[in-house]
Structure formats: C-alpha cells, structure tokens
Design goal:
The protein is α+β, with helices and mostly antiparallel strands. The chain is 32% helix and 22% strand. The chain has 8 helices and 11 strands. A hairpin with a 5-residue loop joins β3 (103-110) and β4. α1 (16-34) packs parallel to α8 (306-328). The termini are far apart. This is Catalase.
Length: 333
C-alpha cells in the first residue's frame, strides 16, 4: 500500500460566509435547547440531536496484539476505559411513536488515570447526505427554527430539496436500501461508523465498529430501551474496532461524505467489550449531561473536515445551554 496522506489544516478551513452561517446556527441551537423541555415534553433540557438516551454503559477498549507497528504508538496500553451512550438521532424525544432506526453509539475513551483521550460519536449509517457546509447550516438552522418558532414546513422543505442531489449516489442509495431492510433489527446488531474522518497522528482515518454474533431479531417485540436492558442482563457484548486510512483523496475523500471510502483495507486495532450488567443509570444527571464533543480529544485524535469542524462550536453551545437550563430546572436525578 502507498504511504497515507498527511493531515493538512486546509481540509478544515471555513469561508467567511460559512462562519457567518455558523453563528446563526449556534443561536438556533441555543434556542432549541432552551425550549427542549416543552418540545419533548420532559423535565430536563436535551441535546438538539440524539436527544433520546436509550442506555449508558461502562466498557473496555482492548487493543489487538497484531496492530501494525507504525500504529502502535497511538495504542500503547493493553486496554482503556470506556463510557458508551446509546441514542436515537432525532432532535425530539418521541414517547409514543416507534423510533426511526437512526442510532448512535458514542464512545468516551479514558486512560487508567481517568484522563480523556478521545470522544467518538458513531452512528449506524456510514454516510452523510450533505457535502456543502452552507447547505447543511441552512438546513440545520431551519430544522431548529421549525421546532422552536413553529415555522411552516414550507421553508424547511425548500432546504431539504437542496440536499436531494447529494442523496442520489450509488453509495448512498445502497446504504439506504440496506438500512430499510434492517429497520426492525436489534440496535446492537448494527455496524457503527464515524461518518467523517479523524486524525490518527499525522494520518487520517475512518472508524467502523462491527459487533460480533448479535442476534438481529433479539427483543423484537420490545422497545429499543427495554431490548438493550434485557440483552445486558444475560449477555456480554463484543465488537471489532476497524479503521481505514486515507491514501488517495480520490478514493478516500475527506470533504465528500456521501460516498464510501474504497481501496483502503480495514485494519483491526482492537475490540470494544461491555460486560453483562454493565449498564449505568441513563437518567442520572451525570450521565444525561455527558458530552461527546470529538474536539475535546487529544490533538492526534481530533476530527478532520469542514462538516466535522462545525461540531466543535455546536457541541459547546449545546452543552453550555443544557448545563445552564438543567441547573435552573434543578435536574438532579
């Protein structure tokens, strides 16, 4: 294989117009979180994406003994401690409707001293339908305002129509069909992906979490939250952690998120393990207030790309507003 392409900050650089739109979007995020108690009809302020927590668990990241020599400096311990949040991607917590199968598997990695190494928000759909930062910010702002200000759906539909061309790629359509075929499957049977790229030192990577030997129809008649609780009463969970490295921007594009990377073999770097009875109380204040901002990671594990760059300030606004609101609401379960 050729040598991996090295990270360059040009992959992250936003234009002046994009920065202006980001400031508008940040205001819409704060407005959403401030009103999220009424939007979801609950007694605490939520995130403005992945609002519903299914479960929180403690786990371990066990490093594979056959990690390639050039990658070993990044994984110099036998194992690391994990905090994991299972979630649904919807902005609003739907209590009575069946959830769409848009799931999150967010991972917080710490060393033996409790120091944070990396946050990785993973999702069960490997692609993102929008490559344009401006289009994404306008859409996200419209969605927030739709919920907060009860805007008509017309303006939101206009923004949705703008992203349609990005959806009609072979990779995207293939994965939509795959998701539809698995829409009723158990959440832990899905593969989870980083979607965007991340640094691995000077290199750039994508991450895939591939669960082992999970019965896809487990807990089929249960709600997602209850199926997870039921599973961990009797089962351990193991998933392979695989990465791809960027060798060629044509085959592994950084800022084109609606196509899969090709011609980059998966490299196994370890396993995520969750023991049975490893679930924590998802409704406790500490667990509900968890943040998985990937920009809080060590510098050599941080996100790469323009869409990824937006996450830093969006996460900060969300968590700051949630903390403020939940302090006012005296949320302390």
């Amino acid at each position: 294989m050729p040598n991996p392409i090295k990270y360059n900050k040009k992959y992250d650089k936003l234009t002046d117009e994009e920065r202006e739109l980001l400031e508008i979007n940040k205001k819409s995020i704060a407005d959403f979180v401030e009103q999220s108690t009424s939007i979801s009809d609950i007694d605490y302020a939520t995130r403005n994406a992945h609002a519903k927590t299914y479960a929180v668990a403690k786990g371990e990241f066990v490093i594979d003994k056959n990690v390639p020599e050039e990658l070993q400096p990044f994984f110099d311990k036998e194992k690391y401690d994990l905090t994991i949040r299972f979630s649904n991607a919807h902005l609003k917590i739907n209590k009575n409707k069946k959830d769409l199968p848009a799931y999150g598997f967010s991972v917080k990695i710490k060393d033996e001293n409790g120091n944070l190494l990396a946050n990785y928000p993973l999702v069960n759909f490997p692609l993102f339908p929008i490559n344009s930062v401006s289009t994404f910010l306008k859409l996200f702002t419209s969605v927030n305002r739709f919920y907060v200000k009860k805007w008509s759906s017309f303006s939101l539909m206009i923004q949705i129509l703008k992203i349609m061309p990005s959806i009609f790629t072979g990779s995207f359509l293939k994965n939509i069909i795959k998701l539809i075929s698995k829409r009723n499957d158990f959440i832990l049977s899905f593969d989870f992906h980083s979607v965007g790229a991340y640094k691995l030192g000077e290199n750039m990577m994508k991450i895939k979490l591939k669960p082992r030997s999970i019965e896809r129809h487990f807990g089929k008649k249960l709600k997602v939250k209850n199926s997870i609780k039921s599973y961990f009463k009797t089962h351990n969970f193991t998933a392979d952690v695989l990465i791809q490295l960027c060798y060629d921007l044509k085959d592994q594009p950084i800022n084109k998120l609606n196509v899969e990377w090709k011609n980059s073999p998966y490299i196994k770097i370890g396993e995520v393990k969750i023991d049975k009875n490893g679930l924590l109380n998802p409704a406790s204040c500490d667990n509900e207030m968890l943040s998985f901002n990937p920009f809080e990671s060590k510098i050599f594990f941080q996100p790469v790309g323009k869409i990824q760059k937006l996450r830093d300030e969006a996460y900060k606004v969300s968590i700051q507003t949630r903390r403020k609101m939940n302090k006012l609401l005296k949320y302390n379960k």
